[in-house]
Amino acid sequence: MIDFGFAFRASRKDSDMAAQTNLFSCLKDNFGVLLHDPASGATAAIDAPEAAPVEAALKNTGWRLTDILVTHHHADHTAGIGELKARHKCRVIAPRAEAARIAHVDDIVGEGDTVRVGALEGRVIDTPGHTAGHISYFFPADKLAFVGDTLFSIGCGRVIEGNAEMMWRSLLKLRGLPDDTQFYCGHEYTEANIRFAKTVEPDNKALAVRAEEVAKLIAARKFTIPATIGAEKAANPFLRADMAEVAKSVGLSGSPAWKVFAAIRERKNRF
Ligand code: ZN
Ligand code: FE
């Protein structure tokens, strides 16, 4: 078990109102998502790949942008910040370790910090590996996680600035969230991820179930996320590097999990 240093609030009080989300596509295959607190009217954009689709989502929902929660410094997650901030005067929250590489930052956060969007309370989880300072946001009362380019459905981000051991540890933190946590990631890569995952675990039943579900969603022109942590850890090979059958399938039985993870990630890079 991973100790996050804070207690999960098991359920919300009756007086609380549930968070709402709005998911939309940006750029080529990025997701944009709004997180809305109906009690206060506050709304956060998780990352800002580009301004126009965020504006369209705000118009569709009638929500007012108060915050931008940034997961990491890559341009496909930050390019829209300047325009959105100029227009909405919203507060920009960014990872401490990457603040120098992100323009227009107001507040910097790291592991264990609390982020408030109106009455919604999120916790910051350091998830380095894709970038050195990448963070994720977890809202325990609503069991919502925003994981940027660390975890994708049936995949994970490329290890660009960190190393495999670091990325594996970050994925373990996300795997340790409650099973019924719904996570939102930075990209719609699920279909291609499934094609690769089947080469690692051709007999994984949970993966077959997810593949069928995703095929239906894609045929219906729907997004494949959010997914739940519980379903993900049964089907995503990158969350399963410590399973004997996964180690065996990449010829690394008995090796440390992070080495198995590194081997799977290497294979995916070349897939
Ligand atoms: Zn990225
Ligand atoms: Fe990205």
Determine the CATH topology.
Metallo-beta-lactamase, Chain A
Average predicted local confidence, pLDDT: 95
How many separate domains make up the residues?
1
Give the names of the bound compounds.
zinc ion, fe (iii) ion
What percent of the residues sit in helical stretches (DSSP H or I)?
25-40%
What is the makeup of the main sheet? Answer: 6 strands, mixed
Topology as a string of helices (H) and strands (E) = EEEHEHHEEEEEEEEHEHHEHHH
Specify Rg, calculated over alpha carbons: 18 Å
Unreliable runs: 1-7
CATH architecture descriptor:
4-Layer Sandwich
Strand order of the largest sheet: 1-2-3-4-5-6
**Termini Cα gap:** 32 Å
CATH superfamily (homologous) name? Ribonuclease Z/Hydroxyacylglutathione hydrolase-like
β-strand amount: 15-25%
Query: What's the overall geometry?
Result: globular
Backbone structural class: alpha/beta
CATH class bucket: Alpha Beta
In DSSP terms (H or I, runs of 4 or more residues), the helix count works out at 9
Quick recap of the structure?
By secondary structure, the chain is α/β, with parallel strands linked by helices. The chain is built from 9 helices and 14 strands. It has one domain: Ribonuclease Z/Hydroxyacylglutathione hydrolase-like (Metallo-beta-lactamase, Chain A, 4-Layer Sandwich).
